[in-house]
Design goal:
The complex is a heterodimer of chains A (about 80) and B (about 750).
Chain A lengths: L1 E2 L8 E9 L1 H9 L7 E6 L4 E5 L2 E6 L4 E6 L8
Antiparallel strand pairs in A: 1-6, 2-3, 2-6, 3-4, 4-5
Chain B lengths: L20 E8 L5 H9 L3 E5 L6 E9 L2 E7 L11 H11 L10 E7 L3 H12 L5 E6 L2 H5 L3 E2 L1 H8 L3 E4 L7 H13 L11 H13 L6 H9 L5 H5 L3 H20 L6 H14 L4 E2 L8 H9 L4 H42 L4 H18 L2 H16 L2 H13 L9 H6 L4 H6 L7 H10 L9 H11 L4 E2 L4 E2 H26 L9 E5 L7 H35 L9 H19 L3 H25 L1 H13 L6 H9 L6 H9 L9 H13 L12 H13 L4 H11 L3 H28 L1
Parallel strand pairs in B: 1-4, 1-5, 5-6, 6-8
Antiparallel strand pairs in B: 2-3, 3-4, 7-9, 10-11
The chains are: A mainly beta (about 80), B alpha/beta (about 750).
Chain lengths: ~80, ~750
């Protein structure tokens, strides 16, 4: 698993662990960053914009919450 | 008629609905078109207020279907019913029928965005556990259609176990089918839905439930176990010892759950998303090649570091010029209207306290409030349009990079932007900020944004004392530059204050930025107009009542005590002499002489008014504070004008008009010029030097840029924070800063004069 911030523009991955502050992690999960959710990097950086199942989130976690993602071997830029 | 068994105890139990009136609750994620659906269903039959005791907005609408009256309750948009914030707790309480002011809903309509099914169904899975009949309104946004998404609504309905009705609220499609489904769902008992939670969790809920004498609804017990900062505990266990005991039980249960592999709160999202995966199996069909790429193209420009920032700067510039330029005409009309009412009252009533109270206190007070309505309408028209089309979230995204430097997130940007029109709606808009400390910081700095009420002060001082020079071949105007500088003073000081607050009193880490970037879409005119009227009404209620009351008090302080005729004798003798000469001149048909005498007579009248002001309570107070304001370069007249503007900054222009003997209609063209002249001509009585020079004018402007002279803002801060500590702090720190700022500007400025 790699940190979400390492994804380049247009790259997709699936959400794995989300680590950090318990309440914040819960909120991120509720907002759609659940295990296995497909995430696409739309604008990298801090904050970044990610695409998730038909919607987009502006997100900057800093040290409070870190999203780790699985990059499947066959994943291609969509 | 279904009558859900209300909890046997609880402080706020609802009355069961009667047969004629149903209560329908509307809930959904933000940006799902819920407001559009609410508007389409209830039309103009809407009421907006607050839930008593909390500052959560309560929106009620009315629908008549098949001769039955339905009360529609629009709950705040939320991603989850986790009962962490007041908004969420109110939503849970309304849905469970635990509020005395809303009847237990007969049907809950859950608005679910088709383009984004999984996350929207998360909220539905919580709603289903509340045990009410539920209908899903599947909102087919433009985006879902453009993407070529197909959804098998019948299959979804089967798998969810509740009716699913596809709607297109903006075009009014599917509304009849939705009403029909609501009618049917409400006539049947609520479906029983299996809990999505694993067995160990269900057992802990059962165990906890058995020990609670008050037998709260099952959903609340789940929340008790899941949420750390839950609002539920205080409701279930009112006593201090009960609460400690309950906490112990909850802690024990959590330890057991962790051992069983169901760690809270993670178990909730895992369980619900697993349920969602089952419920949506085979329901959604994505096209082979996604059709819509326009959103990508827009975002590529609008959120670009360079282009996006330039566009944002242009949008802000246009917004502000529109607010000031377009509002000018309606503001002039309102002004003229109130002036006409005033002069009608002055002509038709005898001189005396009652006429003065009506003209200066009542009409003047209401006028001072209503005059700002056009600016508020225009600003909210533009802000709502930008929000509805999805742009404002992108602006917040771009601003996040700047906001983190002062310890805030991009979410604080929108409230601060609104505060340039008026801090009141700005402070109310801070509700979207989750963290209490970040929200308080934003509330405390919002009044430093130069609101429209500062504008009259800036305009007057700049016109009178800043020379109309231009540089770079007319590209930069000194007067315009001064105005811009005043706006920047507020912004820079706000940034500094935020930095200090976040390191001391409200110490906390820089908040995480997490904000949905909704799909771009054409804004719905109905929603924009409604929001605009709502905000205007809010402003009138909040600001209006207070400004009105204080205007009357200030009128009294300026009107009383009356001077006796003996004290006015020299002026009265003079007046009688001029009147006699005027009669002579009129008799001799000497028009030019009559005209100059009439002007002299007006001058005497103004001097008499001025004498009265000086002797009034307010004038005396001004004399008392003169030593305090002297280091700012002010005399007692400026001092008392500033004192009088404590309820509202804009009052200062009218008060200066009275004190500097020009008469009060100084907002009108000629009057304003006369006030400018009077200010330029005013001198210190002891030395005869001009009272105002550039440093004094700047000191007055800087004082108004930074001071908290607005009772309505302070009242709203008190209401939103549910405490008098924060308004007191706001007032104190802003007044101290304003004094220091004015002092520095004057003292430094005098070095160059």
């Amino acid at each position: 698993m790699i940190p979400l911030s390492l994804l380049g523009v247009g790259e997709t991955a699936s959400v794995g662990d989300v680590v950090g502050d318990v309440d914040l992690v819960h909120r991120l999960r509720e907002m759609g960053l659940y295990n296995g959710a497909r995430v696409k990097m739309i604008r990298p950086g801090s904050p970044c914009i990610i695409g998730l199942d038909g919607h987009r989130l502006g997100f900057r976690g800093d040290d409070l919450a870190r999203v780790l993602v699985h990059v499947a071997a066959h994943a291609i830029a969509v | 008629m279904v009558s859900y068994p209300t909890p046997p105890s609880g402080p706020t139990m609802a009355i069961a609905s009667d047969n004629q009136t149903w209560t329908i609750a509307l809930i959904g994620n933000p940006n799902t078109g819920k407001s559009t659906l609410f508007g389409a269903l209830s039309g103009s039959r809407q009421r907006v207020g607050n839930y008593p005791g909390v500052t959560v907005e309560k929106k009620l609408g009315e629908v008549v279907h098949d001769g039955r009256r339905w009360v529609l309750v629009d709950l705040p948009g939320t991603y989850s019913l986790a009962a962490r914030s007041l908004d969420e707790m109110v939503a849970v309480d309304v849905l469970l029928g635990r509020r005395s002011d809303v009847q237990t809903p007969d049907v809950v309509v859950c608005v679910v965005a088709a383009s984004n099914l999984a996350r929207n169904l998360y909220l539905l899975s919580q709603v289903l556990e509340l045990g009410r009949p539920v209908v899903v309104a599947l909102s087919m946004g433009d985006l879902a259609e453009a993407d070529g998404l197909t959804i098998d609504a019948a299959r979804l309905s089967r798998q969810l176990g509740v009716p699913v009705v596809p709607i297109q609220a903006q075009r009014g499609e599917g509304l009849e089918a939705l009403k029909q489904a609501v009618e049917e769902a409400g006539s049947k008992p609520a479906p029983t839905v299996a809990s999505p939670f694993p067995a160990p969790f269900r057992e802990e809920v059962d165990r906890l439930s058995a020990t609670l004498a008050s037998a709260p609804p099952r959903y609340l017990i789940e929340r008790l176990l899941l949420d750390s900062g839950s609002e539920v505990k205080a409701q279930i266990a009112p006593g201090e010892s009960d609460r400690a005991q309950l906490q112990q039980q909850v802690d024990d249960a959590r330890v057991r759950l962790a051992e069983a592999g169901c760690r809270v709160p993670g178990v909730e999202t895992t369980a619900r998303y697993a349920w969602i995966a089952r419920a949506t199996e085979g329901v959604v069909e994505h096209p082979e090649h996604a059709v819509s790429r326009s959103a990508d193209r827009l975002d590529a420009i609008l959120t670009h570091k360079v282009w996006g920032s330039l566009i944002l700067a242009a949008v802000l510039l246009l917004t502000f010029s529109a607010v000031f330029a377009w509002a000018q005409y309606p503001m002039d009309w309102i002004d003229a209207g109130f002036a006409a009412v005033s002069s009608f009252l002055e002509e038709s009533m005898p001189d005396g306290p009652i006429r003065s109270l009506l003209v200066k206190g009542v009409v003047g007070g209401i006028g001072a409030v209503v005059i700002f309505l056009p600016q508020i309408f225009i600003l909210f028209f533009i802000l709502t349009a930008l929000e509805e089309c999805g742009y404002l979230s992108r602006a917040a995204y771009l601003m996040d990079k700047i906001m983190v430097r002062v310890g805030l997130s991009g979410k604080s940007f929108i409230p601060l932007l609104s505060s340039f029109a008026c801090a009141i709606p700005g402070i109310m808009a801070t509700r979207v900020i989750e963290n209490r400390r970040d929200r308080l910081t934003t509330i405390l700095i919002a009044p430093l944004m130069s609101c429209s009420a500062r504008l009259p002060v800036y305009t007057l001082m700049i016109a009178a004392f800043i020379p109309a020079r231009s540089y770079l071949g007319g590209l930069i105007q000194l007067q315009g530059l001064t105005m811009f500088a005043m706006y920047m003073v507020g912004v820079v000081v706000a940034a500094a204050v935020a930095l200090i607050l976040k390191r001391t009193l409200l110490r906390s880490a820089t908040p995480v930025f997490l904000m949905e970037m909704p799909a771009y879409q054409w804004p719905s005119p109905r929603v924009i107009l409604h929001r605009m009227l709502e905000r205007g009404w809010d402003f009138l209620q909040n600001a209006g009542t207070i400004i009105f009351a204080v205007s009357i008090v200030m009128w009294g302080a300026l009107y009383y005590p009356r001077i006796s005729p003996e004290e006015l004798k020299p002026l009265l003798v003079e007046k009688a002499r001029i009147e006699a000469e005027l009669d002579d001149a009129n008799a001799a048909n000497d028009a030019p002489r009559a005209e100059s005498l009439t002007a002299a007579l007006d001058g005497i009248g103004h001097r008499m008014d001025g004498e009265q002001e000086r002797r009034s309570f307010l004038g005396r107070a001004g004399k008392v504070i003169e030593p305090v304001v002297r280091p700012l370069g002010w005399d007692w007249r400026i001092g008392s004008a500033v004192l009088a503007s404590f309820p509202a900054r804009e009052v200062v222009v009218a008060t200066m008009g009275v004190i500097f003997d020009v008469g009060e209609d100084v907002d009108e063209g000629e009057g304003a010029q006369r006030l400018t002249g009077a200010l330029q001509a005013a001198t210190w009585p002891d030395t005869g030097k001009p009272l105002f020079n550039v440093p004094v004018a700047l000191s007055v402007m800087v004082f108004f840029a930074l001071c908290a002279q607005c009772v309505s803002t302070l009242a709203v801060i008190g209401r939103e924070t549910q405490s008098w500590v924060w308004p007191t702090l706001s007032f104190t720190y802003m007044t101290v800063l304003a004094y220091i700022g004015a002092f520095l500007v004057y003292q430094l400025g005098m070095l160059f004069v």
